[in-house]
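Support request from a user on the community tier.

User writes: "When I paste my structure tokens into the form, the page sometimes reloads and wipes my input. The last time it worked, I copied everything first. Here is what I submitted, just in case something in the input itself triggers the reload:"
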């Protein structure tokens, strides 16, 4: 699952190369420029199905032959796309039943990209046929370093509500529940007269008068993720068979929450992630750090591939802000700090036509006499100098539990408060740790947690019995856990765990919550330690726990906000409200310290973040970034270096600085 492709021994540097958009003389110019910039990996052919198969079964590979030969001849390895992300118009026209359909029954047409139903047999067959051709033809090509299946599965169409999907959903449900009795029990269909008496009655959660059944919606999310994964598997298996030994990836998309990437990560040879800064995000670098840490966690802690990010502006935000000087380097190395062993962009040359013509590239419209190009060339050289970092790993002693089923279940309507967004809570806790320079992983609730000292469950509304027992076992074994509000309240079917919340961990925490008390919009409650809670409170009664902080005012004055209970060799904390800013950071820092976790910097100034990477032989590197709005800096220091701590990066013997 790690990014380790023999054809590219150092950092991989490059990006999507949409050569099909340019006449061939430009290709010749391109390979020269790639050499100048130190580009060693190009992702080729992502959206070229219409040019590779111009009519059913009529393949035209000559241009791709020439392109791969040219790249190989100039030392540029290729991440070769299977081109299945965008079926050509001839295909969609011939197979209108393959077009995706929305929940209201509206057909989503071709003329853009990704217009296919994941369950469509016609799509799957045509895609497999193309992959077979590509794999057979290019398996032995000297340029081939990796296969790139499809592109950002689910980016535009992650679910389809058509009749073909409905039939596939029923098959998936038969497989999950065996019989209708099992399904009716799991979906709680005694509610609102929803009992099913025949499989044919079951449909995807289409547009309904009021809320569709929550477990039906949850299962439809699970099914849809599995259905796209099945598309991936078809291609991957063909590639493994016809092109053995060449790693297969598909690029995940940071910020897409429709695919259960834990399940996907098990299926890819290389975890690769795309990330785009949201220019007007209040904390863009917190988001970058979160996605990069997620990518590393999906890769099991090993180096991963940053497959796409932008040299400057993108084209799809309301205001596409260009990156000021220095940001290109800072953003790219921020991913490297968190375990990326590649710096790849969308895309090599900015397009001249099409919906992405205003998206930046490594070669901008202005050409090489430009800020972007100069920064690209400088970064390529710097990555060469940083090559010793490749293969080192980021070590984290803290994990945040994250589960897609839980997100899908909680992010449905008809929850107690629209203000309690689980993803915002999870990201908030991650950001607080990042500010404290405490490195953390994301972890599946049922994964082996023993390598961590502190495990956080900021927002784990749904947890399976196995996940619940896993956290309890982690604490019993000596770990420290902090459970956030409204976590552990429902089971795998989104049924309430009865007898007082949080049913999954009442005993572990020694707390019994009688009732949830969400707060009115914008309201705050005072806490006995001088802090404040927002969004959410709970009427909790300690049954076997020490109350560390209570509510000082509001309807719950006197009841617990933060509790602690010793369990086995470890300690379990429960927080019944949301803390913000410094209070959250202080709490997490204190718990981390008590659990024996050392931050990278003992007392980081505001706006400074730091991460360490280390080789098994002990050679390590500290990446320190400042996030000021105008002058971002990022330095890389060799650990144990006598100059470390005095010289900013770049000073002798620095590794790199800005
Ligand atoms: C990605 C996609 C690329 C390109 C890019 C633009 O999501 O994979 O093909 O569209 O966005 O930012």
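"...and here is what came back when it finally went through:"
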């Amino acid at each position: 699952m790690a990014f380790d492709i023999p054809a590219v021994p150092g950092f991989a540097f490059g990006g999507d190369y949409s050569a099909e958009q340019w006449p061939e003389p430009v290709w010749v110019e391109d390979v020269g420029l790639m050499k100048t910039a130190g580009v060693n990996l190009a992702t080729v052919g992502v959206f070229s199905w219409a040019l590779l198969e111009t009519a059913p079964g009529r393949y035209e590979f000559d241009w791709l032959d020439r392109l791969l030969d040219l790249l190989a001849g100039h030392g540029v390895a290729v991440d070769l796309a299977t081109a299945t992300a965008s079926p050509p118009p001839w295909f969609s026209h011939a197979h209108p039943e393959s077009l995706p359909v929305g929940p209201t029954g509206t057909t989503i047409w071709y003329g853009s990209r990704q217009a296919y139903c994941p369950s469509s047999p016609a799509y799957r067959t045509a895609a497999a046929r193309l992959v077979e051709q590509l794999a057979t033809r290019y398996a032995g090509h000297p340029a081939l370093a990796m296969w790139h299946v499809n592109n950002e599965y689910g980016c535009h169409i992650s679910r389809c509500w058509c009749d073909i999907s409905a039939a596939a959903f029923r098959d998936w449900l038969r497989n999950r529940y065996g019989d209708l009795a099992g399904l009716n029990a799991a979906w709680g269909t005694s509610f609102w007269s929803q009992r099913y008496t025949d499989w044919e009655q079951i449909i995807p959660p289409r547009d309904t008068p009021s809320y569709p059944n929550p477990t039906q919606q949850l299962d439809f999310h699970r099914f849809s993720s599995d259905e796209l994964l099945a598309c991936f598997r078809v291609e991957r298996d063909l590639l493994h068979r016809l092109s053995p030994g060449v790693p297969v990836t598909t690029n995940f998309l940071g910020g897409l929450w429709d695919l259960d990437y834990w399940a996907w990560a098990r299926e890819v040879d290389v975890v690769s992630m795309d990330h785009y800064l949201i220019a007007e995000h209040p904390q863009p670098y917190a988001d970058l750090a979160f996605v990069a840490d997620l990518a590393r966690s999906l890769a099991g802690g090993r180096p991963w591939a940053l497959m796409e990010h932008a040299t400057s502006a993108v084209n799809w935000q309301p205001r596409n802000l260009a990156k000021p000087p220095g940001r290109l380097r800072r953003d790219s190395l921020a991913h490297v700090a968190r375990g990326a062993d590649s710096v790849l962009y969308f895309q090599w040359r900015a397009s001249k036509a099409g919906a992405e013509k205003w998206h930046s590239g490594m070669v901008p419209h202005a050409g090489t006499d430009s800020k972007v190009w100069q920064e690209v060339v400088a970064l390529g050289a710097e990555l060469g100098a940083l090559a010793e970092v490749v293969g080192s790993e980021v070590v984290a002693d803290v994990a945040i539990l994250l589960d897609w089923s839980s997100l899908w279940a909680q992010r449905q309507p008809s929850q107690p408060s629209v203000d309690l967004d689980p993803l915002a809570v999870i990201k908030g806790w991650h950001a607080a740790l990042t500010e404290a320079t405490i490195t953390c992983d994301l972890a599946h609730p049922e994964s082996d947690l023993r390598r961590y000292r502190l495990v956080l469950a900021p927002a784990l509304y749904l947890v399976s019995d196995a996940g619940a027992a896993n956290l309890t076992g982690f604490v019993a074994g000596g770990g420290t856990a902090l459970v956030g509000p409204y976590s552990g309240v429902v089971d795998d079917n989104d049924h309430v765990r009865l007898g007082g919340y949080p049913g999954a961990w009442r005993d572990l925490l020694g707390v019994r919550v009688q009732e949830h008390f969400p707060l009115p919009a914008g309201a705050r409650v005072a806490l006995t330690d001088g802090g404040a809670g927002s969004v959410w409170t709970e009427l909790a009664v300690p049954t076997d726990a020490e109350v560390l902080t209570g509510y000082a005012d509001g309807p719950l004055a006197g009841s617990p906000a933060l509790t602690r209970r010793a369990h086995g060799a470890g300690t379990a904390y429960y927080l019944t409200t949301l803390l913000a800013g410094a209070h959250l950071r202080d709490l997490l820092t204190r718990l981390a310290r008590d659990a024996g976790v050392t931050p990278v910097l003992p007392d980081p100034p505001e706006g400074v973040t730091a991460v360490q990477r280390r080789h098994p032989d002990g050679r390590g590197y500290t990446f320190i970034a400042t996030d000021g709005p105008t002058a971002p800096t990022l330095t890389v220091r060799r650990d144990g270096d006598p100059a470390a701590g005095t010289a900013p990066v770049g000073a002798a013997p620095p590794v790199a600085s800005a």
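Agent notes: The reload is a front-end session timeout and is unrelated to the input. The longest strand covers residues 511-518. Residues 644-654 have pLDDT under 50 and may be disordered. Escalated to web team.
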